[in-house]
């Protein structure tokens, strides 16, 4: 994730993380190729006003596609393009996620563990609780 707004509270941490990533090297000494994802405009909960976790990094890779969270933000197009470059064998598919981030997650989070007992009897389940 790259934040280009120095006034955003997340800017210092994301800039520091980018510098750390730029310093990483592969076994052969070559740097990794970084493909920055944009930082969407801040989304706020309409009920209590706190900032919601809108991020394009919560994408999901499936078969020949990458499901990409979108927010009706101008940066949606940039995120789709960046993920198309990162995963050239996959088709990026935008999924509107404003309602999902109101639950404090996004696409990848939705595919994680299900609480035990949520699936029909006889179907394998996990014991982890999300």
Automatic annotation (TrEMBL):
Keywords: Hydrolase. InterPro entries: Peptidyl-Arg-deiminase_porph. Signal peptide: none annotated. It comes from the Bacteria. Transmembrane segments: none annotated. The keyword Hydrolase applies. Pfam families: PAD_porph. SUPFAM superfamilies: Pentein (SSF55909). This is Agmatine deiminase. The lineage of its organism: Bacteria, Pseudomonadati, Pseudomonadota, Gammaproteobacteria, Oceanospirillales.
